[in-house]
Amino acid sequence: MPDVTVAVIDKFHQHIKTAIEAAVPTNRTVRFTAENSLAARMAVLRDADIAFVMAAPMPKDLLADAQRLRLIQKLGAGVDRIDLDVCRKRGIVVARLHAGNSIPVAEHTILLMLATYRQLPQIDRCTSAGGAITEEQLAEQRL
């Protein structure tokens, strides 16, 4: 199989880049965007065969220069920020990772509910400003 270039068009922390590079076969080249700008995304996408996108938009003007692009892998469920009409016309396959993070999202939702119930944002603001929380303010805070 000939060399394939994969463009990662969202900016990720180095430890995530390292994990992606370790998972990619040796006959693949991975290019990461240097910053979250249209110009930086265009630079890595220009010669790419495959694009990984998480949150970055993929409008018509970004896709115009990506003549080799054949697959967009959306790391998440929503594809509303990808110009699907352009992809359809050019034969670019768009795949999505449906429900790949449903458990962490559910856990985070429960965490936010508990934080709201326990008034953690208010307590954080108070203590960050040098204030103190009294026992009376915390009393009877149960589910």
Q: Which terms summarize this structure?
A:
single chain; 143 residues; alpha/beta; Rossmann fold; 2 domains; 5-stranded parallel sheet; 7 helices; elongated
What does this structure look like?
This protein folds into 2 domains: 4-96, NAD(P)-binding Rossmann-like Domain (Rossmann fold); 102-138, no CATH class. It has 7 helices and 5 strands. The chain has a 5-stranded parallel sheet, sandwiched between helices. Helix 1 (14-23) links the parallel strand 1 (4-8) and strand 2. The chain is elongated and about 70 Å long. It is α/β, with parallel strands linked by helices.
Q: What form results from the Cα inertia axes?
A: elongated
Q: Mind telling me the CATH superfamily name of the largest domain?
A: NAD(P)-binding Rossmann-like Domain
The string of secondary-structure elements, in order, is EHEHEHEHEHHH
Helix/strand class: alpha/beta
Second rung of CATH, namely the architecture of the largest domain:
3-Layer(aba) Sandwich
The biggest sheet amounts to: 5 strands, parallel
Rg from Cα = 22 Å
CATH class of the largest domain: Alpha Beta
> What percentage of the residues does DSSP assign to strands (E)?
15-25%
Q: How many DSSP-defined strands?
A: 5
**Helicity level, as a percent range?**
40-55%
Number of helices, counting only DSSP H or I runs of 4 residues or more: 7
Q: First CA to last CA: what distance?
A: 58 Å
Unreliable parts: none
Per the CATH scheme, the topology name of the largest domain is Rossmann fold
Query: Strand order across the biggest sheet?
Result: 2-1-3-4-5
Average pLDDT for all residues: 90
